[in-house]
Write a structure and sequence with these properties.
30% of the residues lie in helices and 29% in strands.
């Protein structure tokens, strides 16, 4: 799914656009026991409750695409009868009306989720009448030719509020606040089926993880039986290892600066695109070739890519560089430069030592104090 498709679904979580038919849930305590369940017609809920749920559902579709939100595909072998994929389809097709299926779903989540303490499993069913679009991209609400029927699973920690004092408006006094159990924003969840090309794709789902580096591996691999993608931090480590391992002695300051500059430029050009910028294996190879890697060094690239990335899956560009800063680290000193000024930074051999050289032009401050640089034309 891309940004526009995710945004289109998030827009349904408002009172005027809401198409949620039913909400179900199961509260799990700290001992991992099912303590309570809910099953309601969503539109019958009090308005204040609906708004709280809308906030939670929108959060489940928020974050950075490719980091917090990842599209996962079901292998054909994972779509057989009795699988998690089959269960999700039956839950959707029965519109969450079957209590036995719901209980099976709660057990599946309970056995696979890695969350400390109490949590709430929420599951909604919704049917979105997809409006058609004219040639200029505007929506035609009277030209719908498909209904996107989907489930959204949201898993929220439930934590005891902190002790403290509060103001009692009726009594006009300050008193001890009653502690209660608060449902927090979700830590993980998924949308099934995915909404690809503005249509239902039952062979994939959109997975959400609040912590991009700690997705629910057991749920993804062992239960949903999808391939666990490389976490954001792992993609950066993988790319760095490829650059260092391929360039070898040629992995110098100028080469890495050039790679960062090219990637930052491509990210800037692609920032308006709904799809995140990714680098295929071939594109990573080409990038290294353009920045000093010889054919001899590239001879082992295929094997190295397989060993570090583990597959031919593309790498998300925003996961491997920070387009807002260019950073140089030594054991004792860290220098950060805005990417557009990185070309001004260079290395020179001074008194037999490799040194970083940064121009001191214009107004220069040290700890907020303007200093003189010793230049004759200094004003």
């Amino acid at each position: 799914m891309n940004k526009k498709e995710i945004s289109e679904i998030k827009k349904q979580f408002t009172p005027s656009n809401c198409t949620i038919s039913r909400i179900c849930g199961c509260y799990i305590d700290g001992e991992k026991e099912k303590k309570a369940t809910i099953k309601e017609a969503f539109l019958s809920l009090p308005e204040e409750e609906m708004f709280k749920y809308f906030e939670i559902f929108r959060k489940n579709l928020s974050g950075t695409l490719g980091k917090n939100l990842v599209s996962l595909e079901f292998p054909l072998a994972a779509e057989n009868e009795g699988s998690a994929h089959d269960l999700l389809l039956r839950l959707r097709d029965t519109k969450l009306a079957d209590d036995l299926l719901l209980d099976t779903f709660y057990d599946m989540i309970l056995e696979s989720i890695d969350i400390e303490g109490s949590f709430l499993i929420l599951l909604i069913h919704s049917s979105y009448d997809i409006p058609g679009k004219s040639t200029d991209g505007s929506e035609m609400f009277d030209a719908s030719d498909e209904v996107y029927e989907y489930l959204l699973c949201t898993i929220c920690p439930v934590k005891l509020t902190k002790p403290g004092l509060c103001y009692n408006a009726e009594a006009g006094t300050i008193q001890n606040r009653i502690r209660d159990w608060l449902v927090e924003f979700p830590v993980t969840g998924f949308l099934f089926p995915a909404f690809h090309d503005r249509s239902a794709d039952i062979h994939s789902l959109l997975f959400y993880s609040k912590d991009a580096n700690l997705p629910q591996a057991h749920l993804i691999e062992d239960v949903l039986r999808c391939t666990l993608p490389l976490a954001a931090s792992s993609q950066k480590e993988t790319f760095n290892a490829l650059v260092e391992g391929t360039l070898g002695d040629g992995c110098d300051f100028e080469a890495v600066k050039a790679i960062h500059g090219q990637l930052a430029e491509r990210l800037e050009e692609a920032k308006e695109n709904p799809e995140p910028l990714t680098l295929s294996k071939a594109e990573v190879r080409s990038l290294l070739s353009e920045n000093g890697a010889s054919e001899e060094q590239l001879a082992g690239f295929e094997k190295r890519y397989q060993e570090t990335a583990g597959s031919d899956a593309p790498i998300l560009a925003s996961n491997i560089i920070n387009s807002r800063k260019f950073e140089i680290c030594t054991p004792d000193i860290v220098v950060q430069v805005k990417p557009e000024y990185a070309p001004m930074v260079e290395t020179r051999l001074i008194d037999g030592r490799s040194c970083l050289v940064i121009p001191m032009e214009g107004q220069v401050e040290v700890n907020g104090i303007c200093i003189h640089t010793g230049l004759k034309n200094e004003t």
